[in-house]
Amino acid sequence: MRFRSGSYPWRCWVAEDGKRLLGHVCVQLIEKIPNPVNEPELHAYLTNFYVVPEMRDRGLGKKLLNKALSWCRTREIDAVILWATLASRSLYRRCGLVEPMDIFELRHPSEI
User: Residues 79, 27: contact at Cβ < 8 Å?
Assistant: First the structure.
């Protein structure tokens, strides 16, 4: 199972009301290749961020995201990466994330 303990396990935060799950966000640490530059050695991949529709625009998503980002800061993560939907971009921006100008990607040919 992916959520079991390991050298870089997943971390997940959930919001619930005592009866049901209202939202969640997960983070996976990614170890960087060691290099001679003095910089943090981990990235974090943020994924599976979801809030049930009836609880959106009430601050719950921001609270969950800030918990995950705070956890990353305490571990001196070099970069947090994620794939944002159009609808979620404003929330990410409000929480301090920015769209990079220095990343290259190659997509599978069926997506080009």
Answer: no
- Written as six digits, the tokens of 50 are 């979801």
Question: 63 is written with which tokens?
Answer: 């609270």
- pTM (two decimals): 0.83
Rounded to whole angstroms, the Cα distance separating 43 from 98 reads 15
The burial class, CB within 10 Å (0-12 / 13-18 / 19+), for 25 is buried
Per residue in 68-83, pLDDT (tens digit) is 999 999 998 989 999 9
Q: How far is CA 64 from CA 14, 22, 73, in A?
A: 7, 11, 14
Predicted confidence (pLDDT) per residue in 11-25, tens digit: 999 999 999 999 999
